[in-house]
Amino acid sequence: MIEKVVVSMAQLNQTGGDLEGNFKRIAEAAEKAKHSDILVTPELSLCGYPPEDLLFLDSFLEDCAKKLNELVEYSTRFPKLHILAGYPLKEAGRLYNVVSVILNGKILLTYRKKNLPNYGVFDEERYFTPGGEDVCTFDVGDTRFGVNICEDIWFPEAPSQAKEQGAQVLLIANASPFEEGKEEQRLNMVRRHVNAIGMDACYVNMCGAQDEIVFDGETFACSADEVLARAPHMKESLLSVEVRKGRICRGEDSQPLSDWAVLYEALVVSMRDYINKNGFKGVVLGLSGGVDSALVLKIAVDAVGNDKVLAVMMPSVYTSSLSRGDAAKLASRLGVRLETISIQDGYTAFEFMLAKQFNGMPHDVTEENLQARIRGVILMAISNKFGSMVATTGNKSEMAVGYSTLYGDLAGGFAVIKDVYKTQVYALCRWINECSKENPVFPETILTRAPSAELRENQKDQDSLPDYSVLDEILRRFIEDREGPEEIVAAGFDRAVVDKVLRMVSRAEYKRRQSPIGPKVTKVAFGRDWRFPVTNKYRL
């Protein structure tokens, strides 16, 4: 009888639809874990998560089946290694989200996911059929292992069924997206539904990013008393633990990061994977001298390197010398090439073209938006010519209330701070400067002067919006906590301000629907988390 069983947990960065690339990552993990007894890979590790409507293509499902057969054949190289791999299985006209236990050229067992999430970014009921009462347990040495998939452990039934079949350690394959506070939620669910009934757990999560979703990894092994091993945040890794007499022994424990470090790393990973996985040559963005574009520039540099980032300053007569100077300082500190392209000639040309139509009418938001749209055209032209992706610089506060211009500052390929409130933007920049005290990244004036779009003389954001500290708290309560106006007012906010903010949120839906995608980092992000109608007569 084997006295110890070695379980290796592969925290992989898989890509949607990249069957060959995903197969290679699993194969590489198997090579590294060849002296282990079990290798657990994430949920749908063969096809990537979420595969979405690829699952409606018979050709895709057939190719997944072929790639599974290749993996089964490949497993003969490691005759003692149980490989747990996830994939979509079509069976009797129904599609299941499954994990199979593969050993030495054979599929020993297949587990069908029972609980299909259908909220927020998840819509698995659109594709999959829930698994039945079948339970997946298998013995290695003197330990019996059970298998669950992600959402299954958020409810008591599936873990209890594995326990009833004698499982001592539960192996959980996951593709669990990152959001603030998610790591603690996962651990609590494992403690409540797995550890509390007498099983230790190996929780294996994906890392990397897929469109709006960031997978933070945070793979761990735990008992009822403690976390016994933990993988690094956001990075591909192989975490191994020993199991003796049905209990997991202590293994490597990567030190947890601060909340700001976790959030920042999520933003960097999301941009890096979006650019690299979609084949862009680099990043181009408009650098205004303000805090939002400053943070996006820093993220872009950390994501792909300063040699692949182009910053473009596009001044008008309203652009202050302070903004020009701060943009130049920041680009220099980050080693980024900065081009200056004035929009004034273009703006004058448009005024001339529209002079007849606008005759006798005063300047208003039309002319302000025209400046933003000229800038958008310039950035998109550079993107088309050189193959770089335009990174937009709007934050969640602006997205919420529509403080943005369609086909202007909303024009681009990826909105990396789309789910980051303005107050968080400032806090992240201050945290970055604090981390490099001797050589601060951001000029202090970027962090201290009043924010402005600089589209008219002496313009300030607070001419149109409440102070961001007030605005962001109202938005958090409404968007993420689902509080209504009465609840928000009862919390101490001015009725007139609350009513104004919620009207702005409602009216801006058509803009949000047309904005670029960006990473989800909060509980409720604009996109698949947020599905209000554009044509909507209901007012709070």
Dominant shape = elongated
The total strand number stands at 20
Strand arrangement within the widest β-sheet reads 5-4-3-2-1-14-15
Largest sheet: 7 strands, mixed
Termini Cα gap: 67 Å
* Low-confidence sequence ranges: none
Which structural category fits the helices and strands? alpha/beta
Alpha carbon gyration radius: 26 Å
Average pLDDT works out at: 95
How helical, in percent, are the residues?
Answer: 25-40%
Q: What share of the residues does DSSP label as strand, in percent?
A: 15-25%
What's the total helix number?
Answer: 16
Question: Outline of this structure?
Answer:
This protein has helices spanning 19-32, 58-74, 157-164, 182-193, 259-277, 291-304, 321-334, 344-353, 365-386, 396-401, 422-435, 444-448, 468-480, 485-490, 495-507, 509-513, and strands at 5-11, 38-40, 82-91, 94-103, 106-112, 137-140, 143-149, 169-173, 200-204, 207-210, 213-216, 220-222, 227-230, 237-244, 247-248, 282-286, 309-313, 337-340, 388-392, 414-415. The chain is α/β, with parallel strands linked by helices and 540 residues long.
Tell me what the structure shows:
This protein is α/β, with parallel strands linked by helices. The protein contains 16 helices and 20 strands. It has helices at 19-32, 58-74, 157-164, 182-193, 259-277, 291-304, 321-334, 344-353, 365-386, 396-401, 422-435, 444-448, 468-480, 485-490, 495-507, 509-513, and strands spanning 5-11, 38-40, 82-91, 94-103, 106-112, 137-140, 143-149, 169-173, 200-204, 207-210, 213-216, 220-222, 227-230, 237-244, 247-248, 282-286, 309-313, 337-340, 388-392, 414-415. Strands 5-4-3-2-1-14-15 form a seven-stranded mixed β-sheet, covered by helices on one side. Strand 1 (5-11), helix 1 (19-32) and strand 2 (38-40) form a beta-alpha-beta unit. Helix 1 packs parallel to helix 2, helix 6 (291-304) runs parallel beside helix 7 (321-334) and helix 6 (291-304) packs across helix 11. The longest helix is centred in the last third of the chain and has 22 residues, at 365-386. The radius of gyration is 26 Å and the shape is elongated.
